[in-house]
C-alpha cells in the first residue's frame, strides 16, 4: 500500500525552485525500504481507537480522523496506513457515533480534528461537524490540524475563517516545515485566520535533507513568530514504514536543538517532541530522556515510567548522500 503522488499547482511551482520543498512531495524509491522496527501504524492509533475514526489515547484529548484526503501528500506521512486509503470522509453515522461517545466522556477537554486534512471537507460539512461538537459543551476546545495554509492557501477564504471562528474556542495548528513555504499567499491565509480571532500555532517535522539545519529552522520559526504564529512542536520523525530517509539520528537532533535553543527566544522555540514507539505516547525529548544506549537502541523514559526503544540510525545517516 503506497501513498499516491498528489500536489497542488501552487506548491508544485514553489517546489520547482526549492529542492527542500520538492523533497517533501516527490516519491522516492527509498519509500519501498521498510526497516524491521518500522510499522504501518507507528503511533498505535488502532490500539486506542474505541470507534472507527476516533483515537482516544490521552484521557482529556480525543482525535477525530475527519477525512483520509489531503491537498498534497507528504512523503514522510506517519499516518500513511490511513491517509488516501479510500476511506474518504466521516460518514454521518460515524459522526453521530463519535458525538455520542464524546457526550458520554466529559473528561475530554480537547477534540483534535485531523486526518488527512480536515479542511478538505466542503464548508457546509465542516460547519455541521463543528456545530455538532460545539453543541456538546461550550468549553470544549477544538484543535484543527491542517497543512492547507501551506499547500493550498487560497482555500482559506474569509467565509471558511468565519465558519471556524463561529466554533471557538478553536485552535488552528498549521504545518510549515521550511521558510520557503512562508509565501505572501500563505501569509494571507494565516492572516485571514488571525483576524477572525483564531489562535494559530505550528508544528514542524524535523526532516533530513529538508530542514535539518539550525539556520533553516531558525528562519522558519522567526518568520512564523513575525506572522503571529507560535511554533508549538518540533517533532522527531516517527517510525513509519518507508520514511527512514527522512529521519535524523537522535544524537543529531539533540545537537541541533541545543544550538536552536541558544539562538532563539522562548516564543520562537518550539518544544522538541517524539511519539514513542509501541504506543508510548507523545513526550518531550531531552538528552536526559535517554536512560541508556546500546549499539542499536536508545532507551527513552516514557511518561508511564516504562522504557521505550528508539533506534540509533547514525549509520543510515552516514551512508546515504545528503540530498539537500
Ligand atoms: C499528538 C496527539 C494528541 C495531542 O497531544 P498534545 O501533546 O496535546 O499536542 C492527542 N491525541 C493523539 C492521539 C495524539 O497523537
TrEMBL record:
Q: Quote the InterPro entries the UniProt record gives.
A: Aldolase_TIM (IPR013785), Lys_aminomutase/Glu_NH3_mut (IPR003739), rSAM (IPR007197), rSAM_sf (IPR058240)
Residues modified to N6-(pyridoxal phosphate)lysine: 282
* One Gene Ontology MF term: isomerase activity
The positions annotated for binding [4Fe-4S] cluster are 70, 74, 77
Domain Radical SAM core stretches: 56-267
Leader sequence range is none
What are its cofactors?
Answer: [4Fe-4S] cluster; pyridoxal 5'-phosphate
Q: Which UniProt keywords apply?
A: 4Fe-4S, Iron, Iron-sulfur, Isomerase, Metal-binding, Pyridoxal phosphate, S-adenosyl-L-methionine
Pfam families xrefs: Radical_SAM
Classification via CDD domains? Radical_SAM
Coiled-coil annotation reads: none
Q: Tell me the domain of life.
A: Bacteria
Record's family?
Belongs to the radical SAM superfamily. KamA family.
What is the name attached to this protein's record? Lysine 2,3-aminomutase YodO family protein
Which species is this record about? Winmispira thermophila (strain ATCC 700085 / DSM 6578 / Z-1203)
Amino acid at each position: 500500500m503506497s501513498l499516491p503522488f498528489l500536489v497542488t499547482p501552487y506548491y508544485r511551482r514553489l517546489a520547482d525552485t526549492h529542492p527542500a520543498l520538492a523533497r517533501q512531495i516527490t516519491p522516492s524509491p527509498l519509500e519501498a525500504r521498510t526497516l524491521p522496527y518500522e510499522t504501518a501504524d507507528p503511533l498505535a492509533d488502532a490500539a486506542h481507537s474505541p470507534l472507527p475514526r476516533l483515537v482516544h489515547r490521552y484521557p482529556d484529548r480525543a482525535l477525530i480522523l475527519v477525512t483520509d484526503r489531503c491537498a498534497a501528500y507528504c512523503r514522510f506521512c506517519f499516518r500513511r496506513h490511513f491517509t488516501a486509503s479510500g476511506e474518504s470522509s466521516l460518514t454521518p453515522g460515524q459522526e453521530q457515533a463519535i458525538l455520542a461517545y464524546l457526550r458520554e466522556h466529559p473528561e475530554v477537554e480537547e477534540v483534535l480534528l485531523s486526518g488527512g486534512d480536515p479542511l478538505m471537507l466542503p464548508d457546509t460539512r465542516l460547519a455541521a461537524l463543528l456545530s455538532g461538537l460545539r453543541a456538546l459543551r461550550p468549553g470544549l476546545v477544538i484543535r484543527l490540524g491542517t497543512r492547507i495554509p501551506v499547500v493550498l492557501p487560497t482555500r482559506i477564504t474569509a467565509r471558511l475563517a468565519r465558519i471556524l471562528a463561529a466554533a471557538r474556542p478553536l485552535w488552528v495548528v498549521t504545518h510549515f516545515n521550511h521558510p520557503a513555504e512562508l509565501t505572501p499567499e500563505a501569509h494571507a491565509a494565516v492572516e485571514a485566520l488571525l483576524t477572525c480571532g483564531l489562535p494559530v500555532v505550528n508544528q514542524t517535522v524535523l526532516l533530513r535533507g529538508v530542514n535539518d539545519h539550525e539556520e533553516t529552522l531558525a528562519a522558519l520559526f522567526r518568520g512564523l513568530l513575525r506572522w503571529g504564529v507560535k511554533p508549538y512542536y518540533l517533532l522527531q520523525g516517527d517510525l513509519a514504514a518507508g520514511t527512514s530517509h527522512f529521519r535524523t539520528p537522535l544524537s543529531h537532533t539533540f545537537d541541533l536543538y541545543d544550538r536552536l535553543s541558544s539562538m532563539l527566544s522562548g516564543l520562537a522555540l518550539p518544544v522538541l517532541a517524539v511519539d514513542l514507539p509501541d504506543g508510548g505516547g507523545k513526550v518531550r525529548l531531552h538528552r536526559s530522556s535517554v536512560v541508556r544506549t546500546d549499539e542499536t537502541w536508545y532507551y527513552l523514559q516514557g511518561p508511564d515510567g516504562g522504557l521505550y526503544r528508539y533506534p540509533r540510525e547514525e549509520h543510515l545517516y552516514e551512508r546515504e548522500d545528503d540530498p539537500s
